Amino acid sequence: MTPIPRSVSIFGATGSIGESTFDLLMRAGGPDAFRTVALTGARNVARLAEMARALRAEVAVTADPACLPALRDALAGSGVEAAAGEAALIEAADRPADWVMSAIVGFAGLAPGLAALRHGRTLALANKESLVTAGPLLMETAKAHGARILPVDSEHSAVFQALAGEEIAAVERIIITASGGAFRDWPLERLAGATVAQASTHPNWAMGQRITIDSASMFNKALEVIETREYFGVPPEMIEVLVHPESLVHAMVGFRDGALMAHLGAPDMRHAIGYALNWPERGHLPVARLDLAQIGRLSFAAPDPARYPALTLAREVMAIRGLAGAVFNAAKEAALDGFIAGQIPFPAMAGVVEEVLARMSAQTGLGIATISLDNLQGADREARGLAGAVIASARM
Length: 396
Ligand code: NDP
Ligand code: MG
Known about the structure:
Layout: E1 7-11, H1 16-27, E2 35-41, H2 45-55, E3 59-62, H3 68-75, E4 81-84, H4 86-94, E5 99-102, H5 110-118, E6 122-125, H6 128-144, E7 148-151, H7 154-162, E8 171-178, H8 196-199, H9 209-217, H10 219-232, E9 239-243, E10 249-255, E11 260-264, H11 269-278, H12 292-295, H13 309-320, H14 324-340, H15 348-364, H16 373-395
Parallel strand pairs: 1-2, 1-5, 2-3, 3-4, 5-6, 6-7, 8-9
Antiparallel strand pairs: 8-10, 10-11
The structure holds NADPH dihydro-nicotinamide-adenine-dinucleotide phosphate and magnesium ion (MG).
């Protein structure tokens, strides 16, 4: 049996996933049970310092160099090192830790995750953008260095659990569920007037603001379809999305004998995080137990492509592969910034991403075979720039 990890790092400790991970570590004994190597955050240095003190981390890193003096002040006398910037994040990922949580939001999470994999660590992967932008690179790096990636996204953790003891060759289909987000029941014509506050309210899950808005647009599910393709290596046509408003069934795996294995649980990320933390064992986790008699019924529906155009775009990305995932993710992030800043209405986000994908694949042909951190960063920058231009022209 594999022992519970002795040394851990959390990248993105101050975020929603980071806080849940911290909570589990503290409940499991905190500094008495784990040696915490690195904790990282960006702007919220007060909380980062608090967590680093509580877990007696070796080093606390803020991604933002301007926040370093504040972090140093907050850590004064604690014995925790303070560092800042992208290079410091990589340096933190180079430090030996058995189990590394990758929970930075966005493309910024990729480089530290890759660094941890190069050292053969177990990477608990919440940062879905890593798989979407660089799936083959991530999986090959893990393989080459004997590292392991454990999925933390709830749907992927559910699939992973449904697959325990099974052969991927016996799988016929993978179904990931979606709540349908904040606007599931809105008339389509009202979406153009949706506000940021309205889009930032999730019916079932408490998450960071960006992923909550991505749930309303289903860009989050689009990322997850690609994530499923990259992590489990199944062809796109085997992956289905099902709207399930209760968010209790997280995913289902269909086998060639017709069996469908469903994973159910309360919508609480501490389940998926805790599963990755205790894997291959199951630990006791502080998540609510489902009372199905009380819940009574579960409902399912096919997603409406007119309401959720992001799902169609995900199919295009999977058909192209190469740099398409990086372009899709970057254009999506830029479109989301545009929506949050009030520059474009909610339904225009999909149009921006579609246009950036179309223009960039016409110009450069995104389906190249070999991706590297360098060409991904280039594609990311170019797609953000182009999305900015598309947004600006849409405003004129
Ligand atoms: P949050 O926005 O809550 O937290 C993001 C974390 O990343 C914070 O620690 C933040 O620091 C840090 N951060 C922000 N920008 C940068 C940057 N440029 N460089 C380095 N660090 C940065 O996100 P979530 O916790 O919601 O999500 C984290 C990841 O997990 C995402 O990839 C998301 O898609 C995925 N995920 C999240 C789920 C959820 O339930 N929340 C579910 C499934 C997947 P600070 O706050 O100090 O500024
Ligand atoms: Mg998810």
